[in-house]
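Field log, afternoon session.

UNIT: design team B
ACTIVITY: writing a sequence onto a fixed backbone
BACKBONE:
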């Protein structure tokens, strides 16, 4: 058991119970799908960040549990919708909601989860927390649309890439930490500080995900899925900006027109390694991790801070 799991042992049990209550439905089909979703929940990183940020700033209360449930509802809604957008048949090693119930049901399920989250906050007048997390949903949509728009032309700059991941991934983690802090402190300065902390962790988390596409211990061999989907991530962006013009043209041509050819994708990935794209991305990831830890170390040293530090390090050291 990790430090964070042992510190939150009781709180996570309470959260689980409250989350199950939050997704219940009177409609039999919907209730069946909700049970399917609850049984396949992931690592629960975001609720843990909510609960630990709350503990760092005060005493966990009902508002904190609602914030954690809202975060998980919103996150799950976006995953269900993402699987429709990506036509993905698998999620966390199981069939996705989209694979089992197809487009129409999946879109409605995502909408239902979103509505349940909004009502959970509104019914208890958690207006500030709802504002923090609604802002994240807006940013996530903007990030996805910006990525779609830019990937058409394969002309992504580093600056645009960071804007995309700040919106797509980091915004929800930033809002999770901010909501946790606000639920126990009602202090806007603390809320802002934890939001900055969460954003840095989210940036590091996404870069780590991008690096997985180039292989890792758990994966065993490189996947190249991002390149096959014409998604430009930091290692390839750095490479395209570093290599000579003719190599750049060649790599872009492959990503645009030969992205289903495994041999060609392997060639691009080898070029990324050769150009130092992996080391560059890893250095940026560690830089964001260290910025997050610098903010965290402004708080007094205790078990909660230690648990948060462990979670931060997990985001960059994880093998999956």
């Amino acid at each position: 058991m990790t430090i964070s799991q042992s510190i939150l042992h009781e709180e996570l049990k309470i959260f689980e119970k409250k989350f199950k209550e939050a997704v219940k439905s009177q409609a039999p089909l919907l209730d069946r799908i909700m049970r399917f979703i609850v049984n396949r929940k992931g690592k629960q990183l975001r609720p843990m960040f909510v609960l630990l940020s709350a503990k760092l700033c005060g005493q966990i209360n009902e508002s904190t549990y609602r914030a954690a449930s809202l975060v998980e509802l919103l996150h799950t809604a976006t995953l269900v919708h993402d699987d429709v957008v990506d036509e993905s048949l698998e999620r966390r090693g199981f069939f996705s909601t989209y694979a089992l119930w197809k487009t129409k049901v999946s879109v409605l399920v995502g909408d239902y989860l979103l509505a349940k989250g909004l009502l959970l906050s509104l019914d208890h007048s958690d207006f500030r927390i709802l504002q923090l997390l609604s802002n994240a949903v807006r940013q996530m949509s903007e990030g996805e649309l910006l990525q779609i728009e830019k990937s058409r032309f394969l002309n992504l700059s580093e600056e645009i890439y960071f804007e995309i991941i700040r919106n797509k991934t980091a915004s929800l983690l930033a809002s999770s930490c901010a909501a946790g802090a606000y639920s126990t402190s009602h202090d806007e300065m603390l809320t802002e500080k934890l939001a900055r902390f969460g954003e840095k962790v989210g940036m590091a988390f996404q870069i780590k995900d991008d690096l997985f596409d180039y292989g890792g211990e758990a994966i065993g061999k490189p996947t190249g899925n991002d390149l096959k989907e014409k998604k430009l991530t930091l290692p390839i962006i750095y490479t395209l900006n570093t290599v000579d013009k003719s190599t750049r043209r060649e790599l872009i041509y492959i990503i645009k027109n030969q992205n289903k050819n495994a041999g060609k994708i392997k060639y691009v990935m080898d070029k990324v390694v050769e150009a130092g794209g992996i080391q560059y991305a890893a250095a940026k990831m560690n830089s964001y991790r260290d910025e997050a830890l610098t903010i965290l170390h402004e708080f007094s040293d205790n078990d909660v801070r230690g648990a948060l530090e462990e979670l931060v390090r997990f985001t960059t050291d994880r093998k999956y």
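LOG NOTE: The chain has 15 helices and two strands.
NEXT ACTIVITY: expression trials, pending approval
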